[in-house]
Amino acid sequence: MFVPLMFTLAKLPRHQGPIAPSELTGVFRRSITHPFVKITTKRSKLVTPNRIYVGGTYDPEEDRNGDPCIEVFLIYNEHDQHLTLEQKPWQRLCFEIAECIGHEFVHRTQARRRKFKDCRNYRSRDEHVLKKEEQEYLGTKDEIEAYGFSIAAELSAMYGSFDIESPHLENIVMWKVYNSTFDNDQTVLLKLRQQIVKYLHRLEVDYHDKTNSRTSRARRPRNL
Questions:
Q1: Which ranges of the chain does DSSP label H, i.e. alpha helix?
Q2: Fewer Cβ neighbours under 10 Å: the N or C end of the chain?
Q3: pLDDT per residue over 72-96, tens digit each?
Q4: Angle of helix 87-113 versus helix 141-159 axis, rounded to 10
Q5: Which residues are CB-neighbours of 190 under 8 A, at least 6 positions away?
Q6: 8 A C-beta contact, residue 98 and residue 9
Q7: pTM here?
Q8: Other beta carbons within 10 Å of 191
Q9: How confident is the model over 7-30, as pLDDT tens digits?
Q10: What is the mean pLDDT of residues 36-58?
């Protein structure tokens, strides 16, 4: 899902602006036509002006009912009427939308694999309340796998690397978050590395297949 979507979004003309938030959301809504995905506009005072934050959720109940179960939020500053996007922010936005959808599809696969039963929780022993909450969220098997995908997606799409030993790994925010959150539990970090490696291999194959299908299509024989 992630690699084909990246290729789809890469074909979009860059909407430098000025463009209204609702219009920009519409651009992505028309481009992302998967029946289980919906794209929604949100507003928040916490978003920096002329910036867009991307969030997403997966709803197993809607999935069980056959309804669109993955919702991607494009979150704009509450006062922004129009935005102007430079080249790098536009590329980053396209990546974050594709990565968000891929992340939620990992959760969808997990839920279906378990036949929608709850995931086993991670129990933190940390004495600090905030760190304990963060560990109990990020330490579940589901999130380790989903963020393993997210980190692999960023390493491959933004840095062109499929090697977990790449120095670019240290630039990825969620990698740094996991390392600081689980500095006292190396087993979680080992599991995360295993998931990153797994998805790097899968993404490398997907990129290879996608680029080969574009450059090596069978041609019709000429009429002689």
A1: 2-10, 21-31, 60-64, 87-113, 129-138, 141-159, 173-181, 186-215
A2: C
A3: 999 999 999 999 988 888 999 999 9
A4: 150
A5: none
A6: yes
A7: 0.91
A8: 18
A9: 999 999 887 779 999 999 999 999
A10: 96
The amino acid present at 105, given as its one-letter code, is: F
d(C-alpha 117, C-alpha 11), whole Å = 39
CA distances from 178 to 86, 110, 120 (A): 30, 21, 19
Q: Could you give the 3-state DSSP secondary structure of residue 52?
A: strand
> Using an 8 Å Cβ cutoff, are 139 and 185 in contact?
yes
Tell me which residue of 32, 38, 39 sits closest to 9, measured CA to CA: 32
| String of DSSP letters for 16-43 | -S-B-HHHHHHHHHHH---TTEEEEEEE
Separation between Cα atoms, residue 204 and residue 153, nearest integer Å:
10
Distances (CA, A) of 213 to 156, 186, 209: 19, 41, 6
CA dihedral 107, 143, 170, 49 (to 10 degrees): 70
Q: pLDDT grade, residue 210 (50/70/90)?
A: confident
Structure tokens, 154: 């960023």
pLDDT band of 134, cuts 50, 70, 90: very high
Alpha-carbon distance of 41 to 26, in angstroms, equals 9
